[in-house]
Specification:
The protein is 79% helix and 2% strand. It is globular and about 60 Å long. Helix 1 runs antiparallel to helix 9, helix 3 crosses helix 8 and helix 5 packs across helix 7. It starts with a helix and ends with a helix. By secondary structure, the protein is mainly alpha-helical. The protein contains twelve helices and two strands.
Length: 304
């Protein structure tokens, strides 16, 4: 059952990745489109919490310590989105998403540090292989100059995002395995919403970007965001439920199929729907991405 739940979540997230890229590219003219999209994402946390409250039965009372842990998990959820969206501008989405394959490795590291789990030599090697594949994926060749550069900004943002995803998952399971799925999901979504309020109150540039986008292109952005965030919330719930059934690393490991799905979707949209997504589908670029993703998948499998 957990396999079906996880794969369903991955498919939903893959389409969300395409929608995110479209919104970032469409709203580049505004000062901080990333902040605006983060606000959209986080505020929907309150929507998810309200839906859980209305349709779930039982008490949502938890000890303050457990509530705090789940709120922090929600804040991690907001934070990884920020770094992920920072990686999207000027990058093919199929070059960004494979970096999420680092999340299982960070899950093992956090388990070692906080839960006393042991890392084998094979798992450490798997983590190194993932990073090597990601480094290869992040190499950019100049079409005219022939110069080779490494996109360190992409690497930094996606390594941090992957770490925060692993931390979010570990914190959720730490509480959820004893307190239950729905009550834990409720408080985690509250934390996500609180993260949005913090951004609105204390990051004026993001708040300004949100206001500008709403004034100029609000209806379309809101419509796409409604689909995107609904799919994200449903995907998160499916994945969180799967996390309670099996080890966190198993769920994160199965999510390695997401880069392959996004890779295929990137080609399909570029060929048939270029107004939504356009990527470099030259033979050289596709070969580099394909080999890099394959190396990262092998590394993820070694984590088992």
């Amino acid at each position: 059952m957990w396999i079906i739940l996880t794969l369903s979540a991955v498919v939903l997230w893959s389409f969300v990745n395409i929608a995110d890229n479209y919104l970032v590219e469409r709203n580049k003219k505004f000062g901080h489109p990333i902040g605006a999209l983060v606000i959209f994402s986080s505020i929907f946390g309150f929507v998810g919490a309200l839906a859980i409250y209305l349709f779930s039965k039982g008490s949502f009372a938890l000890p303050p310590k457990e509530i705090l842990i789940l709120l922090i998990a929600g804040l991690c959820n907001v934070s990884w989105i920020i770094f992920y969206l920072k990686a999207l501008p000027d990058e093919d989405v199929s070059s960004v998403i494979p970096w999420f394959l680092a999340a299982p490795f960070f899950g093992y590291v956090l388990g070692y540090l906080f839960l006393g789990e042991q890392l084998t030599a094979q798992q450490l090697f798997g983590g190194v292989v993932i990073l090597v594949g990601g480094l290869l994926l992040s190499i950019k060749h100049g079409h005219e100059s022939g110069r080779v550069t490494v996109r360190w900004g992409l690497i930094r943002n996606m390594v941090i995002a992957s770490f925060l995803i692993a931390l979010w998952s570990v914190l959720f399971k730490f509480v959820g395995r004893e307190s239950g799925f729905w009550v834990s999901s409720f408080w985690e979504h509250v934390g996500l919403g609180i993260g949005g309020l913090i951004i609105i109150l204390f990051i004026p540039a993001y708040r300004k970007g949100f206001s500008e986008i709403m004034k100029s292109d609000g209806k379309q952005v809101l419509g796409i965001s409604l689909f995107s965030e609904s799919a994200t919330i449903i995907g998160n719930l499916l994945a969180n439920y799967a996390i309670l059934l099996v080890p966190v690393s198993a769920v994160l490991l199965l999510e390695v199929v997401q880069p392959a799905i996004v890779f295929v979707l990137g080609i399909v949209f570029t060929v048939f729907f270029p107004s939504i997504l356009t990527e470099d589908i030259s033979a050289k670029n596709l070969l580099q991405k394909g080999v890099s993703i394959a190396i990262m998948v092998v590394g993820a499998v070694l984590l088992v």
